[in-house]
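SAMPLE LOG
Freezer: B-3
Tube label: C17
Construct: single chain, 362 aa
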Amino acid sequence: MKVFRRFAAGVVFVQLIAVFSSASAFGLRPESEIDGKIKALAPRPPISRFWDEAAYVAINHFSHPVHERITNLIWDCKSEEECNQTAPGKSFAPGAVIAGVRWNDNPPFELTTTSMKECAGRTLWLPNYSNCWIKLFKDGEKRARSGETLDLASGTIIMLRSHFGDLQFLHAMAAGRHERAEETQSKILMWAEFTWKVANKEFTQGTLLSETNIPRLTNYFKSTETVQTLFTRGNPTHRDDIGILALGALLHTVEDSFSRSHVDRDEENGQDCGPGMPKRPGMIRQFLNYALQDSSAHAVEDEEDAFDLQLATVRPNAVDVGKSLKAYFDRGAAWNEVKPYIECIFAVIDKDQETSAGNFGK
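STRUCTURE (predicted):
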């Protein structure tokens, strides 16, 4: 058993390194206040518990919580210690917004049917049930590379769709080999409207997605989902702060749009987004497509050094834009007020420009 466990640990580490090096967003470290309780109490075989413990160690050693750092900076952290603190309940930004920033990469999901018996009927997210998560992730990657469509109609779980399928707009990226910039932009604006209205408490925990009256939202998310089940399935920790959690999910999309392997932006030109509005970020030349990219080349632009370079050389950058959105949120701005600014953040030069791998091809 000891020999097997040593071997299994190596497998877990190698697979997790591969997963995090190919993740389609600025690096993050998935963990929450309830993770420890789930690892301790959830009924499953000893080997599954071992996988989760190995996953937790690997996550902490090999993931770089860049999204959390960006978000702490948006909340005006003052020191390196404050800005880099991502431990549950100790981050400088509120815990709920940090949970929201993590959601896009690590949305909770449930398998209704699966050959992996220990994975059925349970809410899955990293670092819990990591064996299930890794197997599903690698299978989804393989299916996407073969050209299979991973969307709502196919019944594919949300985690795979957000990485490889029709929900890649959650990371400010295009889905499909010929998607036009206008199409990607419209999906991002749809997501922005939904999350902003949750953040602004226009939609509550129990609001059905079918009741939001946001065009096309239920093309991507089940109409029977509520705001609560979508964002906090299996984890009640931040349900009372679900508005600010949704804001975090929007910030994740905005932050990703400043990664060079997600979006090709033009140089900023010093203009404002409009009278009395913040500065305009560089306009978007092209939304890139992860399915067409080399995962290793993509990952380089999502690491901490790439973000720090952008922070030093680009204005407005992801932090500047995040601060502006937070200012709108703090004063309770309605969607109609913030919409023109979000349209400015995601303004495209050529609406008919098709997606590609950019400079990150295989």
